[in-house]
Amino acid sequence: MATTKQKILLPAILLANDLLDGDVVFWTERGWSIDPAEALVARDETAAVRLQEVAAAALARGAVVDAYLVDVALREDGLPVPNHFRERFKIAGPSIRQDLGKQAAFAHLRGRA
Amino acid sequence: MYRYDQFDEAFVRERVAQFRGQVARRIDGSLTEDEFKPLRLKNGVYLQLHAYMLRIAIPYGTLSSVQLRQLALIGERYDRGYGHFTTRQNLQFNWPKLRDIPDILDLLADVGMHCIQTSGNCIRNTTADHFAGAAADEVEDPRPTAELIRQWSTMHPEFDYLPRKFKIAVTGAPRDRAAIRAHDIGIQVVRHPVSGEVGYRLFVGGGLGRTPMIGKLVRDFLPKAHLLAYLQSLMRVYNLEGRRDNKYKARVKILVHEIGIEEFRGRVEAEFAALDPAAIAADPEEVARIEAYFAPPAFVTLPETSQRLVADRARDPAFDRWVETNTFPHREPGYAAVTVSLKPVGGVPGDATSDQMRAVADLADAHSFGEIRVSHHQNLILPHVRQDALHGLWTGLVAAGLAEANAGLITDIIACPGLDYCALATARSIPIAQAISRRFASAERQREIGELGIKISGCINACGHHHVGHIGILGLEKSGQESYQVTLGGDATENAAIGQLLGPGIAATEVPDAIERLVAVYLAHRREGETFAEAVRRLGIEPFKAGFLATPAESANAAA
Amino acid sequence: MPLLDAAGFRADPWHRVAAGEPATGEAVLVGLAELPAVIAGRSNAQRVGVEVANTVRLPELSPFLGQIDLVAIAFPAFADGRAFSLARQLREAGFKGAVRAVGPVIADQFTHLVACGFDEVEVPDAIAARQPEAQWRSALASYGATYQTGYGAGASILERRRALRAGQGAAS
Ligand code: HEM
Ligand code: SF4
Fold this sequence. Notes:
The complex is a heterotrimer of chains A (113), B (560) and C (172).
Chain A: E1 12-18, E2 24-28, E3 31-33, H1 45-61, E4 64-74, E5 80-82, H2 85-92, H3 102-105
Antiparallel strand pairs in A: 1-2, 1-4, 2-3, 4-5
Chain B: H1 6-27, H2 33-41, E1 45-47, E2 52-57, E3 62-64, H3 65-78, E4 82-85, E5 90-93, H4 101-110, E6 127-128, H5 143-153, E7 168-171, E8 185-191, E9 198-204, E10 216-223, H6 227-241, H7 252-259, H8 261-273, H9 277-280, H10 284-293, H11 307-315, H12 317-326, E11 327-329, E12 335-340, E13 351-353, H13 354-367, E14 371-374, E15 380-386, H14 390-399, E16 414-415, H15 430-439, H16 443-449, E17 454-457, E18 471-478, E19 481-488, E20 500-501, H17 511-525, H18 532-539, H19 542-549, H20 552-559
Parallel strand pairs in B: 6-7, 7-8, 16-17, 17-18
Antiparallel strand pairs in B: 1-2, 2-5, 3-14, 4-5, 4-13, 8-9, 9-10, 11-12, 12-15, 14-15, 18-19, 19-20
Chain C: E1 3-5, E2 8-10, E3 15-16, E4 27-31, H1 35-41, E5 47-52, H2 58-61, E6 70-74, H3 82-92, E7 98-102, H4 110-115, E8 120-122, H5 125-130, H6 133-140, H7 157-171
Parallel strand pairs in C: 3-4, 4-5, 5-6, 6-7, 7-8
Antiparallel strand pairs in C: 1-2, 1-8
The complex binds protoporphyrin IX containing FE (HEM) and iron/sulfur cluster.
């Protein structure tokens, strides 16, 4: 969960689960997207705080659930890859079923979890 | 099998409508997420990592072929064509959309099923011995009792907002196949030693999770007619006195531990003395009505052993192996109870595809009076199969990829979803199960090792029962990596025991070797006919600890 | 905070009296500590109620039950279900006055509250605003019957089955 007290690790993206579909979604310049490649990457504290505000507002509005910031590393092609393995699985899908989840839908995620 | 009457049917339809309304009110803002969450949990809807999860109640693990086909259909229409059978005799779908769930609930209601109280801080789905009604050692079929509890506990106005979840398990036999002492309340059907009257022995305060505890005896003999009043008294004490300041201390096991079993028993008995059991109990006609649904099916009179089976076994070694491991003695001569393994080598423990569910449903119609059970070992059971028909059944299971001959063996591993699905996980569990299962794939080796239960959880919540595994594996995070603790000496039966830690956590890749080393210690020390669990009880954990801690090089030398 | 019963929102006739304030008025709601004195000093027509935490135990209330008209039990959070049992105990002890739930309960709990012996709820403004009267009413209508005998006014499913059997027995 996003808490303003925690130290923000950078760079960071904002992810959540869609209220109705449950799908993992990422905050982008144009709202929420299911594609991690489109995630807006906060590279400094100010941008990250803005993402936290987006998360708080989105949770209050109720369009998404479980919205929080995730610290990432940027792959050569720019794809943000979470530093923690939990979020890498959360984004990719089950490691034991490569035919399911975002790893099946997005070529840029395959074999990367 | 129990079938809904007009009242059950109306009740469940009302609940579907209620949940549909709650989803709509969540969307329109009448309910906040904090308010909605407990409501959706009470309807079995979790949020996992990638999607929602829907947990469907399979009361006391009993399913009809019609119900199983409906689950197959739901899996195809609303999920990804498979489901996961759990240690709590439930079925979980991993990919439903919240917007579809009311429609799924309608499809379930069509076949007398629901998701009510499969999660949340309420009385959960009541579980029972998966061989109920088939086992020879049974005092009485536990399912009428479990059904009575199901009805009584369903949306109980007083006990729907408990301090924490509450799980009840019932066994009708002295051999405990329902892990009753790992439950908040464990109920054993017993015969009174003097009067011969059938009644209940009750245990309270068992539970796994972060503080594992074995249930303690709270009532040695309870007349059957007093059951609901006694449960009401016990639940009331828990509801009023259970801790609410710390969710990790909120289970009844902590209350029992803190005030002591004597004090707890005294409070329950005081509450019980103030109640009128007859006003709460189901009347005898109602009890008889429920019992009638569990009357034995129309067994035919058969010789004790089937000559046909003897001949089939002699002719077909693979079939012979499967019969040896996957059938269980039936109380009717000429019948057997069959374990349909959901543990193919390298597979996901407990997963079944919609096609496999249909195959099992068809085989149940052909050979088991249309009845299926879910075991807490995450396997399916066909409870009443004629021995003559076993070969035909087996052929069908082979075709469906469900004939792994490993019930109770080292590859019959229990594993929770872990970090492949679960939002609470600290590490993955399924890949560990797969790696061990591949390592011990050889059928000869598995039989040589014999009965050995490995249980794996992906976090301290212990959904994979690791505390009571002969070998338990707990996935944790250590310095940013998945790390696995191994315990030894757990037991879920009437010898219930919590496993002891063998040493520091190890990496995922080291787990199969570590298991090999434990097995090697057992094989080196076992006496004639002694199982792994028995050897651990006799030897204590020290020799195993030494084996576990030995470096791979040392153990290679030791084996040479 | 708005007050609601099975008929809908209504005005609250009870006057909350803080410790140390004079307990005047037709219907006064006081704390457990003040209760004995207020009962002793009340005029004939005055109605007295007590407001308690959900940690209060029945024996603490028992001596007063014949002399008071309202027990208001706090819900610190809607998921804290202790008050359901306390209300039941009050009813089982024969208390005939009103029982009120005070705090952030939600419409979805209304049937359970009524079944356990509550008559009314006093909810925060924010909940009343999100969950208007219609939602509470339809929550009450969402259960035809429940399995537990002795909870709520209607016949339980077990009792309905018995009645049905009796009817069938008579017909055959
Ligand atoms: C979304 C997935 C799941 C979540 C979030 C979840 C959550 C939890 C939590 C929080 C506990 C600890 C309770 C406590 O200590 O008070 C627990 C215990 C348990 N769960 Fe799960 N669980 C999940 C899946 C499963 C599955 C798949 C199974 C069956 C395979 C299962 C069966 C159990 C059992 C048997 C226990 C321990 C027994 C006990 O309650 O003492 N759970 N679960
Ligand atoms: S043990 Fe932990 S990881 Fe496994 S299912 Fe339970 S909560 Fe999830």
